[in-house]
Structure prediction request, 141 residues.
Amino acid sequence: MCGLVRRQHRSCEFCELLDLLDRQSPPGQPIHLILDPVSSHRSAEVARWLDAGPDRTFRFHFLPVHASWLSFIEVRFAILSRKCLRRAAFPDAATAAAQIEAFILTYNTHLAHPVAWKKGVRFSQRLKDKLAMRPALQEAA
Prediction:
């Protein structure tokens, strides 16, 4: 799990995360990111960072709108919520950030493991087919 704790989620914070991923990943390998289709992931600032920044390729794969259940980050957020945030009362944002960062470090050291997507290949193919049919259905209407 890799993350930054910030008060806001704007393009500049997203670029900061991209920079962190670039530094922490093995050189020469492309980085694939599965992203929600929010404006901060598609902004001009992100495009400028990609043009000026890394020597590697970042590949963005955008989830369909209203498909958060496809996002692996939702699983990670559930773990963070259940194991770190539930019933927590932080006196301020700095303390909350420190606790979340400490949890990420502990999780990575002792609990992290690859996640196997249990939906399977047939489900994935049916979803792709369904999404591919959307424009055809809209044109027919």
Remarks:
- The two ends are 44 Å apart (CA to CA).
- DSSP finds five helices and two strands in the chain.
- The CA atoms of residues 135 and 141 lie 10 Å apart.
